[in-house]
Structures are given as C-alpha cells and as structure tokens.
Predict the 3D structure of the following.
Amino acid sequence: MNTFSGPLLDGVRQWLAESGAEPTPARVAQALREQGRVLGDAEVLGAARQLRSELVGSGPLEPLLADPSVTDVLVSAPDRVWVDRGGGLELTSVSFTDAAAVRRLAQRLAAVAGRRLDDARPWVDARLPDGTRLHAVLPPVAVGCACLALRVVRPRAFTLDELVAAGTVPPGGDRVLRALLEARLSFLISGGTGTGKTTLLSALLGLVGSGERIVLAEDSAELRPDHPHVVRLETRPANQEGAGLVTLEDLVRQALRMRPDRLVVGEVRGPEVVDLLAALNTGHEGGCGTVHANAAADVPARLEALGTAAGLDRAALHSQLAAALAVVLHLVRDRAGRRRIAEMHVLERDPSGLVRTVPALRWGEEAFVRERGWERLRELLRGACGARERRGDRDG
C-alpha cells in the first residue's frame, strides 16, 4: 500500500471531517481534487485504505494485530514499532508518518474503549471491544512521542496438549496438571510480565468438569477458558465525576454470591487478596489466579505485602494462606524467549508459623524433575481425590 505524506492526508482528513463524509474512494478522490491533486485509481484506493485504517481501524498496526503469532505490539516512536511473537521483542518495518499520528491513534483507540485520553488525563488502561488490552501514555509524561502497548487476546485458548507441544509444559507434565485440577486443589500461577500466566490459566480452566460453574473476576477480561459455564466479571474505572468505580475487591465479593464451583481471580494485586483467601478457607475449593512474582518462593512475601496493605496483620495472613493455598506454579521466559513452567511448589509452615514454599517439581527437558516437596504434592493430589471419591460413595 502506498504511504502518503502527512500534509496531504491532513488535508483530506479535514475535508472529510468538515463534510461529514465517510472515507470511501469516491470521497477521497473528491477531497484530493479539492486540494488540486489528481491521482490515478490505484493511488486513490491506496489513500482511501490508509485513511480508513486510521479513522476506523488500528492504522499501520492492523496487519500486526491480525497476525496470529503476535501477542504484543509496542509503539515507542513513529519509527519504533515492536512485536512479540513468543521469542522476544522484534523491531518491525511498520512506521507512522509522525508523532501526531501515533497520538491520534492512541486517542481514537481510547475513545473506542470508552475512555478519555488527553492532556488532562494523559494515560489509559482499557480493553478494546475485540478483547485487546490497550495501554497508552501521552507526552509530556511519555517523552517525545505517545507510547502504545497492545496485548492481543486470542479468541481461543490454547489447550494443554498445545502447551506441551510448545514446550511450556514438559513431556508428561500434563498428567500432574490434570491431577491438580481433578483434585480441586487451590493454586496460584506466578511469574513476570509476558511469561504466559494467563495463557496457562486459561488452558487449565478448560480442564474443569463441564458440570462446574467458573466465575472469573478480572481487571481486564483476558481469560478465555474453553468451558461451557463461565461467568465473567470485569472491573470498571470511575467516570469523570468520580462515580461508578468497581474494584476487583468488589468483584470477588460479588462472585462469592454467585455460587461458584471455581472462583478465579485473573491477577491478585490488591486488597482482594483478603476476600480470596477467606473464600478459599470457607468451602470454595479449587480457586485459582495469577500473581506477579520473581520466583515461587517469593509468593508468600508478595501476598503478605498485599494483605498488610489491606489491613490484615502478618500472623492472620499466614494462617489464612496456610489453609487456603496448596500449590504455586511458576513460569519463566528463558533467553530464547520460550515460556515454560520452571517449578511447582507446595506450601508449608515453618516453626515460627510463617508460610514458605517448598520445591516439588522443576523443569526438565524430558520430564518434571522431582524435588523434596514431591511427596507432599503427591499426598495432596491423592488425598484430595480420595476424599472426593469417599464423598461420592456416601452421596451415592
């Protein structure tokens, strides 16, 4: 597609805005004639496509977002557009005409998401109608040019078999994960940004029995489990008058009243940790979620910090944690860009009463390698499944 100069397109944009016309080829040709420019049919069609992409699409980013291998698109300057296809960031040949074009796209995408983005409110974190997560920051907060980050949410979740094939789960590791879901043990998936926490959680939720009701509470609706009975709840920011705020803490409380068989918090990062731990201690088996942490061993400290900020003292937090959470799955991204489960930990209390994690399994090229916590994990899996079978016998 031809790329047309900023002044030429600016003139066409202004003419279309003043006339209220759609950017059809005929209207674009008329706008070009008004500016004294006569172009051939191919050039007019190219200008029409470029304008339509800018006005109603995602501009130069459209082909990147349409690429099924792309998970993230990042714009840091008009000629600095990066993508992540699972192997780390790659600089693309895509570019904008100037910084103003980046700003226009950021503001239009924010408007599509129903958010305000201007000098008075120079950043936005929102979800677009197709599920893509948008984060944008305008100058002068972003120096030089507006910065855009788009996280693509695919309509179909990966299956566990696909994650084994991709190397996220080692060979045979799917059997442990299936047992974890079957045993209805509560678990958290930890890891850094872009390690695949949401992808793995979506795949695992797809293993939940079809007769169970999953209730999701998320800041931004990214989980896409392949399951017939999913209720999705999403937070909402306050409006310009400061009203209408719905927090993740609110959603967790509402979810508990919706008869969940599985309560899922997309990302635990605030005071909702208190309600989640309370729920997992009061009969809500099999709850799960994700949390940002550098290692599985750091998860108790991370939850302690969140709980303390919410007003729960350290001793109470660790008591709740010991009874509520069974397993931590930790994801990493290696130097080759491959996402994988680095380790699985179980929880135990030390003599002081504080909870710590114990390695049970770690990544291996041929299979999970057993660590000292393996026997404890195996007991949990067998004990939970056995208890469920005994309950089923009594009920029968």
